[in-house]
Amino acid sequence: MRRAICPGSFDPLHNGHVEIIARATGLFDEVIVAVSHNPAKNYRFAVEERISIVEQTFSGLSGIIVKPMTGGLLAQFAREQGANAIVKGLRNVADYEYEVPMAAMNRHLSSVETVFLTADSQYTPLSSSLIKEVQSLGGDISEFVPRAVLRAFNGSDA
What is the number of domains present in the chain? Predict the structure, then answer.
């Protein structure tokens, strides 16, 4: 079985993430969406909320499993999950320059390859930070995020 890990904080999940994860399902039998949590970071949504958002978004697509990844190395998590690959989306050259050294280290630590998928051009400007900023200032983010994210923002206090 070909199994991949698509890691991220997904705070919040946006359509660029959705596109990469959906494309990964065409390349692998199983895609584990690893929702990460770093206690040193401040998140808009708790890890449980982010997991729920990802599960709701992909409920109609088979082959996707959503799991928390709290602490530890991605390479170790990938090995524990029996993954053949880590899938990362690239929006631009800066993403590439950031991700390549990590891919090399992950391969060294776990023998798990990283597969890079280039983002569709309509999603290259998207980032979770930008989505949160636009939303916090009253901007309309509805064309950039799945419905589950809109519901989460509308149901919360901020």
Answer: 1
